[in-house]
Amino acid sequence: MHDRILIVGGGIGGVATALACARKGIAVRVLERAPVIAEVGAGLQVGPNAWRALTSLGVIGRLERSAVLPRRAVMLDVTTGEEITSLDFGPGFVSRYGAPYAVMHRGDLLTALIEECKATGLVTLEPAKEVVDLTQTAAAATVRCADGSTHRAAAVVGADGLRSTVRRFLLGEEAPLVSRYVVYRGTIPRPAHAEDAVMLWVGDKIHYIQYPVRGGQVLNQVASFASDRGDPGADDWGTPEELAERFAGVCEYVRDGMRSLDTAKRWLLHDRRPAAGWAQGRVVLLGDAAHPMQQYLAQGACQALEDAVALGEAVAASPDDLPGALQKFEAVRYPRAAAVQQVTRYFGEICHLGGVPGTLRNHVLGARTATDYGHVDWLYRAHSDDAVPALPQLPAHLNLYPHELAREIR
Ligand SMILES: Cc1cc2nc3c(=O)[nH]c(=O)nc-3n(C[C@H](O)[C@H](O)[C@H](O)COP(=O)(O)OP(=O)(O)OC[C@H]3O[C@@H](n4cnc5c(N)ncnc54)[C@H](O)[C@@H]3O)c2cc1C
């Protein structure tokens, strides 16, 4: 069997890439190791950069009933409950970025992408196919699956997430970096008093998020804190008891919401340092396989969606030179994704300040207005392929990776 494009991984990045290629008339096969192609039951923030990508993929129509367009994002002090600053998502925001800010359920997004893929008639989705081996020659790339089947293609796309098998073949065995922060998630029916906003409460090494999903019927919640007990992933690390202790002094609103967190499952947070080399011969990485990032800017999936559109365009522009197309894709996407990977760490540090630095954060951010978009222009604005995005200047001495732990922890 010889495919034109073979995608390893049926997450948001892989399925969006399949759709991007199909929109250009290119047939694609997606191999997903899970028995069913599905997303975890949690919310997703979709910035205007990713909404534009979804628009160009033609899936907005399928999201209209489930996606919520919040009025604003608000940062509040987790102890006092007082508002620190906000970002207005009103008409000025929408016209500046050519798209709204949206929040949605991951499952709703993946379903919309899958439905559109099916409608093209050009995408074959194959669950229960775990890729375990990869080889390539000048003419083709071949993957082997755990069930013994092999698939040959003119190009292979590794969209297989944080612990990407395809990445291992391109860039070697480096474990992802483990953060000391643990996450608990949960959803609750939306109370009448909940604001139609992305709410972020911040404080000393903790944060809490709430926003509506599923047409506004449900609130998605995330609580996170830095555990200092033992090693991330150990039984005594980041436990529900520690969650209760660390959030003991929070404001009443957060305390109320936390009662409905699902404490049966905790999430470890990972990322990697930016590393080039995503495109090698007929194989390329994208999404978390290429540039996993911490979640503080809510951009991991958004960057995967930008990747999808860029890859579809690169492949369609050079159908007779796929290795060249993959190189061009990396040249366009690497500087952008690397900047987001780094700045998201920086923003996480700001959120988690306590004591005097936390008071200073509140004071400095409190001075900005809700329509001051200066800090987010670099992230949300459209960049043409040949323009180098204007990146925020980080102090040269800033150590962005102060607490990293490079160990494989599941
Ligand atoms: C707490 C938290 C909150 C977040 N919030 C946001 C947010 O609000 N907005 C946002 O944009 N991002 C957010 N993210 C990031 C986002 O979830 C990820 O960046 C995104 O899901 C990555 O998509 P992906 O398709 O690249 O990888 P994945 O979603 O990991 O998909 C990879 C797929 O590949 C499959 N696979 C793996 N190995 C193989 C193999 N060998 N063979 C075949 N298939 C394989 C997997 O089963 C999986 O289905 C958040 C992350 C976390 C942890």
UniProtKB/TrEMBL annotation:
Q: Which domain of life is it from?
A: Bacteria
Does this UniProt record's set of keywords contain Cell membrane?
no
User: Which Pfam family would be a valid example here?
Assistant: FAD_binding_3
The UniProt keywords, alphabetically, are: FAD, Flavoprotein, Monooxygenase, Oxidoreductase
What cofactors does the UniProt entry give for this protein?
Answer: FAD
User: Gene3D superfamilies, alphabetically?
Assistant: FAD/NAD(P)-binding domain
- GO MF terms on file? FAD binding; monooxygenase activity
Q: List each copy of the FAD-binding domain by range.
A: 5-341
Task: Report what the protein is called.
Answer: Salicylate hydroxylase
* Organism whose genome encodes this protein: Dactylosporangium sucinum
